[in-house]
Every structure is written in C-alpha cells, then in structure tokens.
Amino acid sequence: MAAPAVEATAATALRSVILRARKAAERVGRDPERVRVVAVSKTKPVSLIRQIYDAGHRCFGENYVQEFIDKAPQLPEDIEWHFVGHLQSNKAKTLLAGVPNLAMVHGVDGEKVANHLDRAVSSLGRHPLKVLVQVNTSGEASKSGVEPSSVVELARHVNMQCPNLVFSGLMTIGMPDYTSTPENFRTLTNCRAEVCKALGMSEDQFELSMGMSGDFEQAIEMGSTNVRVGSTIFGPRDYPKKST
Asked: Mind listing the pLDDT tens digit for each residue in 74-106?
C-alpha cells in the first residue's frame, strides 16, 4: 500500500501536470479541453491510483494485460481506461473481458491484432472500441508500430474491415532519451494529414497520442490530444525483480 506522503505528492504532481498541459495548449491557441492527460499507472498499487481518482482524475492508462485485469475490477467503474502498451493478438479478448470500461487501445500495430480486437468486441457484445494505429516514427527495430509508409493501409483496414472498432487516430513512442522528439512528432502529424486525406476524415476530430513525462508539453504544442504521463505523476517505476 502506498504511504500517505506518496499519495499526497502524486495528487499534487497531477495538478501540476494538468496545469502545464493547459498552458501548453493555450500557448499555441489550442483548446485545453481537447487534450487528455492519461495518467499511466503501470506497476503502481491500486491505493495510489485511487488517490489520484479521489483528486478528481478519471483517465488512466496501463501497459500490461495481466496487471491491468487484476487492478481494474478493484477501482471505480467510471474510470476511462486506456491500454497504452504492446498488445499481443491472443490477449485481445482477455483484455476486453477483464476491463469492460476500456475506452481506447493506443497500440494497434497490425491487421492481426485489429481483427482479434474486432472479433472480441463482437463476441462480448460490448460497444465499439476506439483504437489508435501505432506508427514507428523513430525507425528503431525494437519499437512496435507500422512504418509511416504503411499507415494509410492499416488505418483503412481498421476503418473499413473492423466494424466493431472505431478508428480514432494515431499513436507513437519517441526515442527513450527524447533526442529526436520534434522529428517523431512531426512525422506523426504528417501521417495524420495523409490518413485524413485518404479516409476523408477531419483533422479536428482526429486523435494523436504522443508525448510522455519528458516531452508532453512539446507534444501538445505540436498537436497531441493524448499525453501519456506516468513517472512525473506517480514517481519512479517499481519494476518487479526478475528471478535468476
């Protein structure tokens, strides 16, 4: 269980992040209400998430399916949950069944996972699921996501062939050291323009998920509608030690 001092610090940090996000939007003439702060709570205890919830926040993100389905039932049903990690196709139904109030999946990186999610939504009889297509904007082999040149094809597949999914936009993860952040973000906004033109979508209604703890203000200034902020709110990650 999180110590009271940690919980108070997290609530204060959340308020600071939300204020910084609003100011970043205002600096470039954007409506701050169009920017969603996803508080990424992976590895953090339910008690700490509850503290942030009690401070008024409702939008949270998790990365790992098993951890997610363990924690979500212990928390209020009006939370707007986002899955922000890499999703394996064979975990799609497990995730959706375990988190009925899942609002969005940020990392659809191929037709296979899209098809599995589409079938899972149908078989569970839940309302259509919003999804974002993940784009590998940094060119790193270790990163999930489609190449920018393939994004229109995958977006079209989700939009046309997956009736139980709502194609809502694009997501990217930048370089770990943030060195190429502007280029990553610029690539994603260019992809947005291409997809909107190809699918006849309005950029005003198009979601972009980009920006994390170290660069979320810059991401907002460059058009992000979802910033995924974890350690700045919750503190450093407590990853379980691997057994040797």
From this structure: 999 999 999 998 999 999 999 999 999 999 999
Residue 103 parent element (H or E): strand 102-108
Mean pLDDT of the chain: 93
Model confidence pLDDT, tens digit, residues 36-56:
999 999 999 999 999 999 999
Compute CA distances 187 → 56, 78, 199, whole Å.
34, 34, 18
In a 3-state reduction of DSSP, which class is residue 224? coil
Query: Contact, 155 vs 116, CB < 8 A?
Result: no
Predicted TM-score (pTM) of this structure = 0.93
CA nearest to 212, candidates 170, 178, 168, 169: 178
Domains of the chain: 2-221 (3.20.20.10)
The DSSP-derived string for 125-145 is TPPPEEEEEEB--S--TTS-S
Measured between alpha carbons, how far is 72 from 69 in angstroms, rounded to an integer?
A: 6
Q: Which helix (H) or strand (E) holds 21?
A: helix 4-27
Task: Confirm if 61 and 23 have CB atoms less than 8 A apart.
Answer: no
Residues of the chain with pLDDT > 90, as a percent, come to 84
User: Could you give the CA distance from residue 223 to residue 216 in angstroms, rounded to a whole number?
Assistant: 11
Count other Cβ atoms within 10 Å, centred on residue 141: 5
